[in-house]
């Protein structure tokens, strides 16, 4: 009886606080709404009318969220936004409502609205991986929209990379396999973002080289010097392009491998992806369909070292081969 009374007091206190919060936006209460609603519903301890009305708002907001998710699957993004907005109007302390609406806005290319929603989601829950993903991705898209290529663009792009890395960290912490798809998208946009920074630097370098050549040309004319332009270019140009070997790419994830594992079939896969395949389909090579001896799995050290060297030298890990950073398409 003591525990029951205590639970009743806790739930009633929260719901009273929630009702007050609806009228006074200066108060923020971070108790997880789903737990409160679930507990209240299970124990049937919501008695007086004001608390019951608040619980109905919470329940209705969850229904609108589910409805919005359904519209996302149907690719009816405007209707999804309307549903998420209804949920937020009923309960504005759930980070997921804002991050879901952010996704819908992004899919409609409403980048400013999507960024604002992602920012609101992160104010409520700084560990919202999807909000970090959307926020970082939109920063990178905004960089592409700038008309001029300057050093400040690199700094802005690095902010986007930082947000994506935060999203990556949150997904790594989670053991939920449903987040694997998000993890793949994060890794892809991280790779493309780093590629974009590389291409921006390349463009700035080319412009600086032209400026330097013009300066040297002016000096040579004034002082009547004969310059070996081939030798000069060899010394001032950077190596600006690389070819990413296809065998660096996991055949399952289609992204650069982090921990390449060599199977007795002769093929290498990223450790996380092949382990998931084994859990789902047994010890069979997903490409060759050959039976795999689990005791024969070894780390492909030579391949891993090659990948690490590429990352260290060029600072990006993607398989994107765009020549123009404005042409890169983010997920």
UniProtKB/TrEMBL annotation:
The keyword Repeat applies. Its EC number is 2.3.2.27. Residues 74-128 form a coiled coil. Signal peptide: none annotated. GO terms for cellular component: cytoplasm. GO terms for biological process: cellular response to misfolded protein; positive regulation of proteolysis; proteasome-mediated ubiquitin-dependent protein catabolic process; protein polyubiquitination; protein quality control for misfolded or incompletely synthesized proteins. One of its GO terms (molecular function) is protein-folding chaperone binding. InterPro entries: TPR_rpt (IPR019734), Ubox_domain (IPR003613). It catalyses: S-ubiquitinyl-[E2 ubiquitin-conjugating enzyme]-L-cysteine + [acceptor protein]-L-lysine = [E2 ubiquitin-conjugating enzyme]-L-cysteine + N(6)-ubiquitinyl-[acceptor protein]-L-lysine. It comes from the Eukaryota. Residues 243-317 form the U-box domain. The keyword DNA-binding does not apply. It holds the Pfam family U-box. Keywords: Coiled coil, Repeat, TPR repeat, Transferase, Ubl conjugation pathway. TPR repeats lie at residues 61-94. This is RING-type E3 ubiquitin transferase. The lineage of its organism: Eukaryota, Sar, Alveolata, Ciliophora, Intramacronucleata.
